[in-house]
Design a protein that fits this description.
The protein is an alpha+beta fold. The chain has 15 helices and 17 strands. The protein binds protoporphyrin IX containing FE (HEM).
Length: 425
């Protein structure tokens, strides 16, 4: 990206491989030279990269909307939280506005808050133990394919109430949808996988409608919910399930994978965390800030307004470069360094305002379980050749593969479920 001081017009495609290679430098340059820029890519949109400007937008949901309309017949998308837009139905609640947003958050909050994180911790730990048991005697594993990706998908399916052996359909689909740019030749295949996932969600809702839906999972809860005596529409239940899968699976995978790679390169930090677990909660927030797994957020201007003194006009789209805002030197000292004990740490990796991540408690729990298990059981791992970042870092900045080797250890003694052995690589 070439930028002359003071010129607000740039060319910046957040999904491009060039951006994936250079995003740290681009973030620095934008923040310092042109924090409010107009990118001519992807139909034209504003780019905001300073922390305070991102906050200004996400905290004013009456002016900056997340709402989305998608017409499957024409493929036309308006609004929503992606640039370029995703040609799929709206995410619920991420792509709703008030008052609809209040309704769906009210329904989902109790199911995804701190109590849910506590409740699912033992399950998450049992998955982590079994996933490590599968490989611990061999001395090597791919931490993405065999650990972070399956674990987050399994916990998310558990919460929702899908059979766990189906985790790969959801985990691999989300991996493909978020890691490929929409102009990548393989993106069509990712959309085809998303259609299979859609059919599976429909089937599950239908099955429960016919057979009943006992139990305490989120799908049962959505189907039992009544608003003014009426059940939720099928499409809304479907899109709420889709949003939980989209939010729950690839984001925490990306965070944990980035940290595994980072600690592979910085054994002294790994040793500090291994030796002093009380550091973990503070260090985790620093990892969230530094790696910002959700690379950017998007809003549409609902009515003419201003951002940082610049006018914005109804209908214009704004890409908020979250990863750059989380390294804003106005807010964070030495922002390009991972400082394990950074405190306070007002990162916005989970967003801010009404749409702030509903799954943050679950995400923190899953991260702690995964990293804690690795530090306990394979503390001496080394990175092998073949680690690969996503070719496109927006919307999610994650890893395709991170192969490691380590001193072989002993299994825990608990049996590995047959479905897990059959479905994990
Ligand atoms: C490290 C992991 C995660 C990160 C970094 C992350 C990040 C975010 C961010 C930045 C937003 C705000 C989006 C916006 O303002 O447009 C968000 C919203 C959301 N997240 Fe997460 N998330 C994570 C994990 C999860 C998990 C585990 C779940 C579910 C189990 C989840 C479900 C959601 C949902 C449903 C929303 C929409 C909330 C709303 O619109 O009110 N996320 N997340």
């Amino acid at each position: 990206m070439a930028l002359d001081d003071g010129k607000p017009e740039i060319s910046l495609d957040f999904e491009s491989p060039e951006h994936a290679r250079d995003w740290q430098a681009t973030g620095k340059e934008l923040r310092s030279k042109c924090p409010f820029a107009w990118s001519t890519d992807n139909g034209g949109h504003w780019v905001v990269s300073r922390y305070r400007d991102v906050l200004r937008i996400v905290q004013d949901d009456s002016v900056f909307t997340s709402g989305k309309r998608f017409d499957p017949a024409t493929g036309i998308v308006e609004g929503g939280v992606a640039i370029p837009p995703m040609p799929v139905g709206r995410l619920i609640p991420a792509e709703t506005d008030r008052p609809e947003w209040d309704l769906f958050r009210g329904i989902l909050n109790p199911r995804l808050g701190p109590r849910a994180a506590d409740k699912y911790k033992a399950r998450a730990q049992s998955f982590a133990t079994a996933l490590v048991d599968r490989v611990i005697e061999t001395g090597h594993m791919d931490t993405v394919d065999q650990f972070t990706n399956p674990l987050t998908a399994m916990v998310t399916l558990d919460l929702l109430g899908f059979p766990l052996e189906e985790w790969a359909l959801f985990g691999d689909t989300l991996h493909a949808l978020t890691s490929l740019a929409k102009n990548d030749p393989s993106y069509g295949q990712a959309l085809a996988m998303a259609a299979v996932m859609d059919r599976r969600i429909d089937e599950e809702i239908e099955r429960r409608r016919v057979e009943g839906h006992p139990g305490d999972d989120i799908i049962a809860h959505l189907m039992e919910t009544r608003v003014d005596g009426e059940p939720l529409a099928h499409a809304d239940i479907h899109q709420a399930i889709f949003n939980i899968i989209a939010g729950g699976v690839d984001t925490t995978t990306a965070l944990t994978s980035s940290v595994i790679f980072h600690l592979g390169k910085h054994p002294e930090q790994r040793e500090r965390l291994r030796a002093d677990r009380s550091l973990m909660p503070i260090a985790r927030e620093e990892f969230l800030r530094f790696f910002s797994p959700v690379h950017g957020l998007v809003r549409t201007v609902r009515s003419d307004s201003e951002v940082a003194g610049h006018p914005v006009v109804e209908g214009e789209r704004i890409y908020m470069f979250l990863a750059a805002a989380n390294r804003d030197p106005e807010i964070f000292e030495e922002p390009e360094e991972v400082i394990l004990e950074r405190f306070p740490n007002r990162h916005i990796a989970f967003g801010a305002g009404i749409h702030r991540c509903i799954g943050s408690f679950l995400a923190r729990m899953m991260f702690d379980v995964m990293l804690g298990t690795l530090l306990d059981r394979i503390p001496d791992y080394e990175l092998l050749e073949g680690a690969a970042l996503y070719p496109s870092v927006s919307p999610i900045n994650g890893w395709v593969n991170i192969p490691i080797r380590f001193t072989p250890g002993q299994r825990s003694g608990d049996p590995v479920p047959a479905w897990m052995d059959a479905s994990v690589k």
